[in-house]
Amino acid sequence: MSFTVFLGNLPTWVTKDDILSWLRAENLVADEVKVIRNPETQESKGFAFIDAPNQEEMESIIRRFDRAPLEDRILRANPAQPPRPKGERGPARPFTRDGAPPVAGMGAGAPGADRPKRGGKKHKKGRPTPQSAFAEELAKAL
User: Fold this and answer.
1) N or C, where is the chain less crowded by C-beta within 10 Å?
2) Confidence of residue 2 (pLDDT cuts 50, 70, 90)
3) Residue 37 phi, psi dihedral angles, 5° rounding
C-alpha cells in the first residue's frame, strides 16, 4: 500500500530540500520527496509528492500542511491519487444519439441539472435583480 501525499499550490521556488527541512522542523518523516518540474525549463510546476513510511505519518503530514499558509498561498495536502495511464485525460464523456458531444450543462445527468436557475426577478430593462448591497451599487454604477 502506498502512503504518498500530494502537496500542492507551492510557489515555484520550493525545492526538495525546503520540504525536507519543513518536515524535519515538525518531526515528520518522509522516505522520499519529489518536486514535479517542467522538463523543458526545470521550473517547479507547483506541486510535490511526499512518500511517508506509514499511514500515521502520512496523516500527520496532511494535517500539518493542508491549508497551511505560505507567502500569499494556501497549501493543499491530501492522499495522492494513483497515476493515470498515459493518454488518459479524464472521465469519458458521453455522446448524444446523433454522435455529437453533449452541450455543457444540458441534460438530466449534467452537473447542476437538478439545481434551480440563478438570476431572480428581472428589472424592467431585463437585467437580473442584484443579490447583494455591493451588487446593487455596482448595478447603479453601470
Assistant:
1) N
2) confident
3) -125, 155
How far, in Å, CA of 137 to CA of 5, rounded?
Answer: 45
**With 60 as the cut, is the pLDDT of residue 12 above it?**
yes
pLDDT at 44 over 80: yes
CA distances from 139 to 47, 122, 128, 132 (A): 40, 13, 10, 10
Query: Of the candidates 16, 64, 22, 63, which has an alpha carbon nearest to the alpha carbon of residue 37?
Result: 16
Residue 14 near residue 50, CB atoms below 8 Å: no
- Residue whose cell numbers read 506509514: 54
Rounded distance, CA 37 to CA 46, Å? 8
User: What stretches of the chain show up as alpha helix (H) in DSSP?
Assistant: 16-25, 55-65, 133-141
Q: How confident is the model at residue 83 (pLDDT cuts 50, 70, 90)?
A: confident
Domain range 4-79, its CATH number among 3.30.70.330, 3.40.50.300, 3.30.70.2760, 3.30.300.130: 3.30.70.330
Q: What is the mean pLDDT of the chain?
A: 79
